[in-house]
């Protein structure tokens, strides 16, 4: 039946769109379930950059650190605040400082990749404020400052990759590579004093990163910000905390102030938008396909009233007439489903890069979409089938 070709196409398009929407929705759900590595989400991040490369000196660096500490103390005094830390990189954000590393007593095998790690600075309160667990060793203290022994805290991924089950606490690492010549950091040996938990930085769908924390007071304040942990409603601290920062550093813009929950949502929102848009198109296509099936079968019933009447006068009962129309619609539906599933498998390969935690050929998604389309398609077939079953053969024979 030529009039059925558009219906088959509509069903196929509906299946493709619904499958894509299902995969993107499952991706969004998987992302929302990702463990960030933080023990609490009642955390506010407030980047504050005091560094001016044009006027930087050792004296201005010391003054900047004092202003950061003043901000920390005043925000810490606010009601509901549990802890305030200072760090160069906000939790769940990636650092742009990535250095080659060397481990004391461990030579890099020929042809092996040179160890790398992101460099971040952190005050003694930073890990507690961010909710990053300290798995081994100690945290930084106020004694870890300029002139004292150089120390670092590494994350678990770094420890696992470069110490292979050995206890890294007490071992020494150093930055290396030509890039050191263009930075204020030295290649001095630094002693590992602690191991922190891994965090999902740079996006919930990003790979874990090797991280090395340096004491904020021991290095140049090349970047900084406040990490504020509250007992509840941390977003309510944005206004007062921002006012404190503006009072201490009126020349510095305060931007991208976000809670951990907002940072997580920022990572999910592009996929949420994709899922919503594809779902809307899928639902629209589904409605059009259902109306198309019902319309084609209704047209078929109207064109075959005489035939149906004759069949019923010769003994065909209502059930047999219903089955005839349902079978006709079922053929269109089956063809559409077959083409739609094939198209969905191809389309899934195209959107592979948008997926996370779900395979492009996720069986649960394809089964759910196929069953849903089949149920709606059968329901659309049922309406004209019921109408055909109610045709009165006597009236049909008199009018024809």
Question: How would you summarize this macromolecular structure in one to three sentences?
Answer:
The protein is α+β, with helices and mostly antiparallel strands and 400 residues long. The protein is 48% helix and 14% strand. The strands form 2 sheets. A 6-stranded mixed β-barrel has the order 3-4-9-6-8-7. A 4-stranded antiparallel beta sheet has the order 2-10-1-11.
Question: Would you kindly provide a written description of the structure presented here, covering whatever features stand out?
Answer:
Helix content is 48%, strand content 14%. It contains ten helices and eleven strands. It has a six-stranded mixed beta barrel with strand order 3-4-9-6-8-7. Helix 2 runs antiparallel to helix 5, helix 6 (260-303) runs antiparallel to helix 8 and helix 6 packs parallel to helix 9 (363-389). The two termini are 24 Å apart. 39% of the residues are buried. The model has no long low-confidence stretch (mean pLDDT 84).
Q: How would you name the oligomeric state of the polypeptide chains in this document?
A: single chain
Q: Assess the beta-strand content as a share of residues.
A: 5-15%
Question: Distance N terminus to C terminus?
Answer: 24 Å
* Helix share bin: 40-55%
Structural class: alpha+beta
The number of E-state strands comes to: 11
Q: Using only CA atoms, what is the Rg?
A: 33 Å
Mean pLDDT: 84
Largest sheet: 6 strands, mixed, barrel
The tally of helices reads 10
Write down the secondary-structure element order: HEHEEEHEEHEEEEHEHHHHH
Strand order of the largest sheet: 3-4-9-6-8-7
Task: Choose one word for the global shape.
Answer: elongated
Any low-confidence stretches, pLDDT <50, length ≥5?
A: none
